[in-house]
Design a protein that fits this description.
224 residues, alpha/beta, Rossmann fold, seven-stranded parallel beta sheet, two-stranded antiparallel ribbon, 9 strands, 33% helix, binds guanosine-5'-triphosphate, binds magnesium ion
């Protein structure tokens, strides 16, 4: 966004983008400090609508709940469906944020939700961002790592069409490998695009319905 102020001497551009971005970074830093103080390792799980974010989180929570104090914050425009799907997997707390229309979570929203988490006994927090590959990539939440989930049914060119998301990811999960053939997608293409964009980035193929590859995701996050 660009904002101009008109004076007798002409128009002056006010650097509103930079100011807003700097404010978001400050809020993210406050979260980062809070996570560090409370010994919580937090992860931002992003990806398109229906990519498999909730399915992956539910599988990870199930595997970790015996050894870790896990909490989940699920972000969606509306409904509590995702929080309900994760409930019963062993998390100590599951919260749902409804953005009411906003296409991403931000550090301020997360900070407010953190006030609802137990003060003690948590060491892992999974944050499911709102489903899309655009807005969430521009907002840091103050987490340790971002996991971008992309599914085979999003097509072979999804990586190159959404560079900001994949440039900001620390781990990429390529989900729904079981249906790649049915939707005529050769997974070699997104994998090659990722390696060209981010040489050496960890890319893990999963079938979250069957739980395949989930242990590898946990290893990549140094949770197993
Ligand atoms: N075939 C197949 N289906 C999957 C897989 N993972 C998830 N699904 C299905 O895909 C649909 C969407 O999965 P979700 O986990 O809800 O996806 P999401 O990214 O959380 O979706 P939003 O929160 O709406 O953005 C559900 O019907 C899942 O059962 C997979 O690996 N293979
Ligand atoms: Mg979901």
């Amino acid at each position: 966004m660009r904002l101009f102020e008109t004076t007798d001497a002409g128009s002056i551009e006010i650097q509103i983008d930079e100011d807003i971005q700097a404010r978001h970074e400050e809020l993210a830093e406050r979260n980062r400090q809070l996570f560090a103080d409370r010994g919580i390792r937090a992860f931002d799980i992003t990806g398109s609508v229906g990519a498999g974010k909730t399915s992956l989180i539910a599988e990870m929570v199930q595997r970790l709940s015996g050894t870790h104090g896990v909490a989940v914050i699920a972000g969606d425009v509306a409904t509590t469906h995702d929080a309900e799907r994760v409930t019963g997997r062993g998390a100590k707390k599951v919260l749902q944020i409804n953005t009411g229309g906003m296409c991403h979570l931000d550090a301020g929203l997360i900070y407010r939700a953190l006030g609802q988490l137990p003060e003690a006994g948590l060491d892992v927090l999974f944050i499911e961002n709102v489903g899309n590959l655009i807005c969430p990539s521009f907002f840091s939440l103050g987490v340790e790592a971002r996991i971008a989930v992309v599914s085979a049914s999003e097509g072979a060119h999804v990586i190159e069409k959404h560079p900001a998301m994949f440039e900001s990811a620390d781990v990429v999960v390529l989900n729904k490998i079981d249906i790649a053939g049915a939707v005529h997608v050769d997974l070699a293409r997104p994998v090659a695009d990722l390696q060209a964009m981010r040489p050496g980035i960890k890319v893990i193929k999963t079938n979250c319905l069957a739980g395949e590859g989930v242990d590898e995701v946990l290893q990549a996050l140094r949770l197993a």
